[in-house]
Amino acid sequence: MAGITRLLKSSIGRKFMMALTGLLLFGFLIAHLSGNLLLFKGQKALNDYAAWLASLGPLLWVARLGLLAVFAVHVLLGISLSRENRGARPAPYAFEKTVQAPLPSLWMLRTGLLVLAYVVYHLAHFTFGIVQPAGHALVEAGTQRHDVYGMVVHGFRNPVVALSYVAFLGVLGLHLWHGLASFFQTMGLSHEGYAKLIRKAAHAVTWILILAYAALPVAVLTGLVGKS
Amino acid sequence: MKLTLEVWRQKDANSAGKMQRYEAAGISPDMSFLEMLDLVNSRLIEAGQEPIAFDHDCREGICGSCGLVINGVAHGTRKATTTCQLHMREFKDGDTIYIEPFRAKAFPVLKDLVVDRSGFDRIQQAGGYVSINTGSAPDANAVPIGKEEADIAFTAAACIGCGACVAQCKNASAMLFVSAKLSHYAHLPQGQPERMRRTRDMVDAMDAEGFGNCTNQYECEAVCPKEIPARFIAEMNRDYVKAAITEA
In terms of CA atoms, which chain B residue is nearest residue A11? Predict the structure, then answer.
């Protein structure tokens, strides 16, 4: 137990926790996307999936609370580590220069906080129905169930809403661009022969994920989906 | 060459410092950076002023004593070069050069460009050695070590402990230094018995000194005069977590 306590207090242990929670959140992004892509399959498929999720009941709440805990650890650790890192150089350089660090790697705190704001907005929009109550209140024709498909189409038909999602996805992409590649280094998975390959693969996966997510608002806005 | 120098001047550890401008005329491109400062200092002394204090020793790029942040880059922009091995031909006539000390909470400024790097010594004292008494030097090749492993150990052992990694890191993290000292032993049989304990103790000592945390931007690797790769940090992360789990 002493070892675990030491680990959680140490610089490396907290970095490790950042990486681990980051990976779990990344896993959630993939699961969430796989559900979202049912939008392309049609109204019934997406609403069936939503109804199945809702039918999980307590299990769904376990998953939600678990996700919330992981998210909270990632955010709070990120803020505390950033503050510590700033404190490690109290006097700045008169001539400040960055030799090779890519910009997204320098912006992790600010992109992270923007992603947090985006999550709040996203929940207010599609989960709590505060942003567009009319869309949230839709019921699938001929059934009693919540029309998730209709809600998404209603939401993304508004160009301001659709484009704000695309913009936020860009920010998420910047965060993942450095975060996903960093995961491997922090977890100790680095090797002379593979380090570059791992970094490139992480960047490629980030691009694919963000483009797949962005396809949803773009498809609705351009009328590819939900034109009836 | 005629240069304008913007130099950090600070009387002592307890005084506030500031950037001060000096005009340096008659600089030969063949001078080393430190010889240029020697010349500026001799003129300051002739004028009855306090010379600029800076650290140096071997001037051969192997002792790790020198270290200035030149135009925002630790040891200057020439790759794999210590400050003492940097020459004025890297600059152009009329250039303005900013010269600052290594900046980190864990490296307090003692005077002008001299910082206290004894934090590195305390990290080393926490475990950067093999404590087994091995007697006199063994016969060469008595303990066979594979070429690849020997090369990795040697790459890590090339660290001269100058602190440029800390100076350049956005978070003033010492992880490249500490990981080099760890990997140096982690790839040799003599380092194995104490490997976990060494990792644990040196990382804990590093944290206690107030260095920042690595955010994987690899600024350290880019300025390291001995080109120590940041993958040693990954190895340190791995070993530290392993050490904590096996201790539990």
Answer: B213
A64 burial (CB, 10 Å; 0-12 / 13-18 / 19+) is exposed
Q: Which of A9, A99, A194 to mutate to test the interface with B (most CBs of B within 10 A)?
A: A99
Q: How far apart are CA A111 and CA A98, in angstroms?
A: 19
CA–CA distance from A146 to each of A136, A139, B18, B104, B134 (Å)?
Answer: 8, 5, 66, 57, 76
Query: Could you tell me whether strands B96-100 and B3-9 are parallel, antiparallel, or unpaired per DSSP bridges?
Result: parallel
Q: Which residue does chain B place closest to A191, by CA atoms?
A: B231
Q: Which two tokens stand for residue B44?
A: 């300051």
Shortest CB distance from A94 goes to which of B19, B212, B219?
Answer: B19
* Portion 85-114 of A in contact with B at CB < 8 A: 85-102, 105-106, 108
SS3 state at B141: coil
Angle at A211 between CA A199 and CA A47, to 5 degrees: 125
- Tell me the Ramachandran region of residue A97: left when phi exceeds 0, alpha when psi lies from -120 to 50, beta otherwise: beta
The DSSP code for A171 is: H
User: How far, in Å, CA of B193 to CA of A170, rounded?
Assistant: 49
CB neighbour list of residue B107: distance below 8 Å, 6 or more residues apart: B101, B115, B116, B117, B119, B163, B166, B167, B172
User: A146-196 pLDDT, tens per residue?
Assistant: 999 999 999 999 999 999 999 999 999 999 999 999 999 999 988 888 888
Residue A226 to residue A203: CA distance in whole angstroms? 32
CA distances from A24 to A31, A37, A73, A187, A189 (A): 11, 20, 11, 14, 17
What digits encode the pLDDT tens for the residues B121-160? 999 999 999 987 767 888 888 889 999 999 999 999 999 9
Mean pLDDT on B58-74: 97
Q: What is the DSSP letter of A126?
A: I
CA distance to A171, A173, B94, B129, per residue, from A108 (Å): 10, 11, 38, 37
**Which of B66, B46, B51, B48 lies closest to B5, judged by CA?**
B51
Question: Cα separation of B53 and B8, whole Å?
Answer: 10
Q: Return the structure tokens found at B187.
A: 């790839």
Q: CA-to-CA distance for B217 and A182, rounded, in angstroms?
A: 9
Using CA atoms, how far apart are residues A168 and A125, in angstroms rounded to an integer? 14
- Which stretches of chain A are DSSP H helices? 2-9, 11-36, 43-55, 58-87, 103-106, 108-122, 133-136, 148-156, 159-186, 195-221
Cβ atoms B169, B106 nearer than 8 A: no
Per DSSP, the three-state class of B32 is strand
